[in-house]
């Protein structure tokens, strides 16, 4: 039986007929390709926008609570340095080694998701245990679970090959792993992250070859469970009603949404000017985290918000092009997964801020304040940048450099 039939994945590798040992030797001799620098420029620009807007959004709040208007900016800047260092490491590791680390990563992720629920380890804020304190910093395990979902499913669907279309042998084991993750995150509780991981997993499974009928059937089965989960708890039902009509409870559950509308509306087309927003004056809750997009609309206007939206759309397009330009199936899935991980939460965050989606507590990738989110998004960017090295144009450039070097030696 051919390798293609065994794995269910067509092998387009340029070295498919070369023995593995010889292929590794050729790869070792080949100059290492540079990645897609435009990806790096997009992420850096988003990060700089984030630093500027975090300072604008949090300066007054930080001055009042910490007697330092740059308190949140300094912490985000520190996390930015850690994230960029992590990017440099991840962008250069051999990607196939990730497949060897899936099992240890799974153990670590589940250990963290359980640990965060334990008193004395997990830090409780506003009734939720989502963070593990590490001295002056805090780490959010569910953010790491999001990246693990991408790596795990990229490995899993390639490993299963054609068997992924079988429900019990292919889909069911993945559902157990992802389902346990989501269940632990719901216990925190963190509905927003649970929804992100669920949608991300569904998209990756579909792209990996899982039957649409299987996924659609599971989705239909979940509807009664979701309705029961909402209706059994009054505050969740109230949040849904406030989403449908924020003015039904303008001083409580609908307050944040109304203030977001006011921020976006008052900004108009050109905005009120950087630093001139009024909603950050203790009107709009979380102006530097989940609702920073509203402040961008207030200070930079429709032009600012549309520019930001176009950047994420361009990142989605760029990542998709990279995914379909590589030959290795694992690299392709990894590229699509990291691209969706960085862009899906962005689109959902914008949907929440503009009232298109219910409030879920989602960060705007690379822009919102938050070290865990920033670190994981830069790690995802590092993986995508790494994959871009193996696309044909960048391999060709590396090959040309190698020939030039050999010619010079000759």
Concise account of the structure shown:
The chain is mostly helical and 410 residues long. The chain is built from 16 helices and three strands.
Question: Can you put this structure into words, describing what you see?
Answer:
With 410 residues, the protein is mainly alpha-helical. It has 2 domains: 35-92 and 249-388, no CATH class; 93-232, no CATH class. The protein is 68% helix and 3% strand. It has 16 helices and 3 strands. It has helices at residues 3-7, 20-29, 37-66, 71-90, 97-100, 102-115, 141-160, 167-187, 191-207, 212-231, 234-244, 255-267, 292-323, 329-353, 371-388, 392-409; strands spanning 122-125, 128-134, 137-139. Strands 1-2-3 form a 3-stranded antiparallel sheet, with no helix packed on it. β1 and β2 (128-134) form a beta hairpin. α3 packs antiparallel against α13 (292-323) and α13 packs antiparallel against α14 (329-353). The longest helix has 32 residues, at 292-323. It is globular and about 55 Å long. The two termini are 45 Å apart. Mean pLDDT is 86; it is low at 1-31 and 398-406.
Residue-averaged pLDDT: 86
Structural class label: mainly alpha
Low-pLDDT stretches: 1-31, 398-406
Order of helices and strands: HHHHHHEEEHHHHHHHHHH
User: Count the helices. How many?
Assistant: 16
For the record, the count of structural domains works out to 2
Keywords: Cell cycle, Cell division, Cell membrane, Cell shape, Cell wall biogenesis/degradation, Glycosyltransferase, Membrane, Peptidoglycan synthesis, Transferase, Transmembrane, Transmembrane helix
Main location: membrane
Enzyme class: transferase
EC number: 2.4.99.28
């Amino acid at each position: 039986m051919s390798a293609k039939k065994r794995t269910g994945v067509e092998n387009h590798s340029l070295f498919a007929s070369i023995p593995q040992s010889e292929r590794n030797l050729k790869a070792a001799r080949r100059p290492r390709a540079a990645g897609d620098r435009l990806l790096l420029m997009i992420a850096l620009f988003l990060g700089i926008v984030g630093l500027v807007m975090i300072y604008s959004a949090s300066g007054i709040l930080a001055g009042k609570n910490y007697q330092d208007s740059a308190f949140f900016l300094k912490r985000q800047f520190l996390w930015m340095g850690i994230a960029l260092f992590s990017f440099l490491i991840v962008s250069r590791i051999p990607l196939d080694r990730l497949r060897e680390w899936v099992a240890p990563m799974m153990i670590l992720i589940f250990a963290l998701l359980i640990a965060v629920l334990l008193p004395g380890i997990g830090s409780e804020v506003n009734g939720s245990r989502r963070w593990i304190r590490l001295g002056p910093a805090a780490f959010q395990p569910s953010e790491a679970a999001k990246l693990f979902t991408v790596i795990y499913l990229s490995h899993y669907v390639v490993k299963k090959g054609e068997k992924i279309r079988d429900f019990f042998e292919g889909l069911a084991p993945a559902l157990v792993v992802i389902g346990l993750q989501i269940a632990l995150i719901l216990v925190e509780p963190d509905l927003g992250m649970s929804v992100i991981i669920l949608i991300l997993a569904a998209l990756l499974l579909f792209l990996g070859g899982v039957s649409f009928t299987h996924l659609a059937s599971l989705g239909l089965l979940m509807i009664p469970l979701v309705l029961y989960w909402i209706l059994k708890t009054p505050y969740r039902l109230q949040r849904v009603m406030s989403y449908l009509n924020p003015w039904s409870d303008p001083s409580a559950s609908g307050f944040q949404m109304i203030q977001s509308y006011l921020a976006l509306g008052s900004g108009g087309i050109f905005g009120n000017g950087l630093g001139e927003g009024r909603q950050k004056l203790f009107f709009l809750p979380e102006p530097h985290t989940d609702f920073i997009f509203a402040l961008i609309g207030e200070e930079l206007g429709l032009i600012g918000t549309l520019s930001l939206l176009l950047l994420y759309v361009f990142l989605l397009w760029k990542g998709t092009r990279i995914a379909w330009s590589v030959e290795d199936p694992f690299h392709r899935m990894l590229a699509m997964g990291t691209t969706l991980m960085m862009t899906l939460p962005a689109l959902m965050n914008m949907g929440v801020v503009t009232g298109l989606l219910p409030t879920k507590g989602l960060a705007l990738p690379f822009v919102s304040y938050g070290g865990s989110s920033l670190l994981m998004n830069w790690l995802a960017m590092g993986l995508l940048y790494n994959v871009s090295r193996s696309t044909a144009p960048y391999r060709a450039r590396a090959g040309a450099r190698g020939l030039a070097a050999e010619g010079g030696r000759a």
